[in-house]
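Render this sequence as a predicted structure.
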Amino acid sequence: MLRRGGPAAPWAAARAVACREFSFFLPYYAVFHDVEDCALAAGAPRRAAVAVGGAAAGAAGAALAAPAARVARVRANELEAALRASETPPAPARAVVMGLARDRARLARHVRVAALRAVPPNALAFSVYVATMDLVG
């Protein structure tokens, strides 16, 4: 990898991955706290409010990060192809996002699947975190 791409090769997809992670966590905690507060105000038990807040946080983060996740996946595929010595010209990130924007049905499906996939682990993670904090402190 270093022989073909030079010292910058391991960092080739770093910008796309950083954008994906930043856009996932940008709404994450704000959505969690807002939904948790709304659920508590509506009279839901605390554990249910935490689980619903975590699920909403995961769905919001995944939905917002879906285009950046697609760019990161394309970058990873390009790097893998380059390691296999095929000469594939890299697609600019803007071209990947614009391709998704043109095909709105594919983008909507991608966002829906990403959001649904993020709901269970985030609901569980926030529930375990809050339960642990209640036990510890």
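Summary. The radius of gyration is 19 Å. The chain is about 80% helix and 0% strand.
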